[in-house]
Amino acid sequence: MKAIFLGVLLTLPIHAEAISSVNFGGFIDTYYALDSNNPSSRERATFQTQPAKHNEFNLNLAYMEAVLKEDERRGRLALQYGTSVDRNYAYENNKSLQTIQEAYGGIKLSDKLWLEAGIFFSHIGIENFISKNNTNYSRSLNADNIPYYSSGVRFEYQASKKDLFHLHIINGWQNIQENNTSKALGIKYQRTLDATSTFVYNNFLGDEKVTTPRSRFRTYQNFIFEKKLNERWKLQSSFDVGTQAQLENDGVNSWYATSLILGQKLNEVSKVGYRAEYYLDRDQSNIATGTPNGFQVASASVNYDRVLAKETVWRSEVRGFYSKDEIFPQGSSSLNEWDWLVVTSLSLSF
Asked: Per-residue DSSP letters for 190-257?
């Protein structure tokens, strides 16, 4: 990856004076996970992206980045590899695109307005694609089943110190290459309520091919509330509502997801994360199971982090799932309604 990354940079027309504005860095996240259902293929359920492999030492995510920050322009180029990348980019026809985590450039149009274009992280969701940015190691179900990335243009408008707006014009629902004739829209509104609290609203509107080969109009509403309770505790909560036009009729199908996350700082080197969540998609509009009750899953997890050295973190998590139907791969041919996960990770940032 390093050779590819440097090769790309060397082909760019970079002037000497611009080098001082660029920060280089990287991240390596290794893991080992055990799934109680012991899937024979070592592939965990496909509606989870991290961790993806059972009983196998592997690389969840590694990337190298170059970040440009100036008064009038900014951008990021990041190249990546890992099992989470394989899962998230599974539906891209051009597999070479999965090496691109972000590749965008932006220009300042006015004191409060920016325009950026390229491939960038999605604006939707309570948790980030990069594990170190989240309270828990694995992703919540509502984070794992929304776009992690987008391709298009976005406008950022800082209306005031407390109010931030984004407008996204993108190819679609987690796709870099276009797969139909329509474009999608997304809006982000972030409000700083006070010194300790933030409210975020994100949405998505567009004709999409997700669980069927035919495009249908899809909406998604994502509400996030975050609050620092005190010096040791932080609260994060999310409630999501999605709709999809029915395939044969004029109506719509809906799905819902919610999660509650608590972060606890034990001391300067240790943290604990707690999460409870529920996902309801009876009509399988977003997650196809092929079962009578669709995707109805509750999950809870506990995560422990310890800083071992500068930018080096050991993370471990225990997580349980319960589904109304048998949907979790078990052994070589059967399915189970229960699933338990134990995962440990060592990550390094530089």
From this structure: EEE-SSSEEEEEEEEEEEE-SSSSS-EEEEEEEEEEEEE-SSSEEEEEEEEEEEEE-SSSSSEEEEEE
Model confidence pTM above 0.85: yes
Distance CA 276, CA 141 (A): 10
Helix (H), strand (E) at residue 143: helix 141-144
Amino acid, single-letter form, for residue 43: E
Complete DSSP assignment for 189-202: EEEE-SSSEEEEEE
**pLDDT, tens only, 73-89:** 999 999 999 999 999 99
Task: For tokens 């080197």, name the residue.
Answer: 269
Judged on CB neighbours under 10 Å (0-12, 13-18, 19+), 137 is: buried
Beta strands in 82-183 (DSSP E): 100-108, 113-121, 149-158, 163-170
Which residues are bridge partners to 252 per DSSP?
245
Phi, psi angles (nearest 5°) of residue 5: -60, -50
- Work out the mean pLDDT of the chain and round it to a whole number: 93
Looking at residue 19, its pLDDT comes to: 62
Question: What does the DSSP 8-state code read for residue 70?
Answer: -
**Domains in the chain: ranges and CATH:** 23-349 (2.40.160.10)
